[in-house]
Write a structure and sequence with these properties.
Helix content is 50%, strand content 13%. With 266 residues, the chain is of the alpha+beta class.
């Protein structure tokens, strides 16, 4: 994988310094540049890497990577330049309200995931299979060698930017339902909110689902589920109604942008 990069507007000297930074990882993260991360070893139990999405963040995540991994810091610097924010400061010191902003959180989550991926693979722990939860699918593509690291960061930046803009136009969010009465909740969604302003966004496990939608519909659903003892509701620390029809415009813009990226890499 080619992990050096150049950026329009930089001098050749700047590019050389950045590329040198990227080409000189710490001892704990040294990797061959042409090496995919996914291995195929049938002689041992499978390693499956699941990469997280939004909602898994906390202030201080990746602190050890900032201290020891120059390649990781270069990725965060790249994301900081594209977002216009000091992502290292936000990641390590917060405040939490800034970390919650999706245009900042998405590239940070991807950078931290990529940093730990490199550390694991450098230590000989490689995944046989990769998958991601929501945003984590982007990191999984990088882990599989399909997208290089710098492009992965750029994708996360653009995705976060578009979703942040969509969330700014409305109020809403997401909440998980633990041990749900699925049949009754699905009937509620179909009969009470047929307009799609509240949807079953994630079917995470037999004992957990996630609903997403506009604020008023969310509040009404929480009351309905709580009063009927249909499950335990937990508000998720996200800034918008992700995985819902409210993201339709952002999805179209993202698909168009990805098409341009794909043509540029052919």
């Amino acid at each position: 994988m080619n992990e050096s990069f150049s950026k329009p507007g930089r001098s050749r000297g700047d590019e050389a310094q950045i590329n040198e930074k990227l080409e000189t990882p710490s001892a704990s993260t040294e990797l061959r540049r042409d090496e995919h991360f996914v291995s195929c070893n049938s002689e041992r139990a499978s390693n499956i890497f699941l990469f997280p999405g939004q909602g898994s963040q906390e202030v201080g995540m990746g602190a050890d990577l900032f201290k020891s991994d120059s390649f990781f810091r270069a990725l965060v610097d790249r994301a900081s330049e594209r977002t216009g924010a000091d992502l290292e400061h936000i990641c390590l010191r917060g405040p939490e309200r800034d970390l919650l902003r999706t245009r900042l959180l998405q590239p940070l989550m991807v950078c931290v995931s990529l940093g730990y991926l490199r550390r694991l693979t450098a230590g000989g722990v490689k995944p046989d299979q990769v998958l991601g939860h929501s945003l984590g699918e982007i990191t999984a593509l990088a882990a599989a060698g399909i997208v290089d690291f710098e492009t992965t960061v750029d994708i996360a930046v653009k995705r976060g930017e578009l979703m942040d803009a969509a969330a700014a136009r409305l109020t809403g969010g997401m909440f998980a339902v633990i041990s749900p009465d699925r049949e009754v909740i699905q009937q509620y969604l179909a009969g009470v909110v047929p307009s799609g302003n509240l949807v079953l966004a994630n079917d995470n496990a037999p004992n957990q689902i996630v609903l997403s939608g506009e604020q008023e519909a969310l509040e009404q659903a929480v009351q309905f589920i709580t009063r009927g003892k249909l499950g335990q509701c937990r508000l998720l620390p996200v800034a918008g109604p992700w995985h819902s029809p409210a993201m339709a415009e952002a999805r179209r813009e993202f698909e168009a942008w990805l098409g341009q990226i794909g043509r540029a890499h052919v």
